[in-house]
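hey m, so remember when u said the tokens were messed up on ur end? i reran from scratch. heres the input so u can diff it against urs
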Amino acid sequence: NYIMMLDPVEPGQINVSAGLAITMLPLPLVENEVPAPALDVRCRLGLSSQWSLLGRFVGNYAANVVSITPMRSYELTKFWAGYGAQVSYMFGRVDFLEGFNTSASGVFVNPFIALGIRIDDIAITSKYEFEMALYKQHRVESISSTTSRNTFNGTMLSFYVEQPFWRTTSISLGVTLHYTRNPYQAWLAFNTFSDALFYPELQMGVLF
């Protein structure tokens, strides 16, 4: 019942996980380094012996991302290798604070390569990706304040551990090390800050 591990999922089989993602926003974007929690739901659909389709929703109303990822994987003796491209739509809105009615949206593409290994029932996966922002827009009320297209946004390195938990469930623990511009969790700063920054994202989920 694993999602991030690269070994095959039976065609038609769907694995689902639900949990939390916690991002530590870097100091230049916020006055104090604070965690930004979000609901994190993932699924993986087996298409063939080598192809899978992954989906993810991560968000907390103010900042949300929906993504879909075709992925191909290969067995390399004791290891699995894979590649794919994640296509994401980001949307966020702040209208619950007095004096604020602003929103943002964007489309991103993340090509990646991945490597995984099983040690008994424990699956360990690493993934390296880079992010292209095809489109980003920041709006105040109904007026577009900033728009950008086709920009390189940065790179990410992720590590995941998945293992059986209880009965037919499993647990997943992951960390993604971002070095990017404009983290979606801090989209309010899109039009004031464009330097690449390092920040970690922790992910925890139950697979069923």
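this time it looks ok to me. The two ends are 7 Å apart (CA to CA). if urs says something different then somethings off w ur setup not the seq
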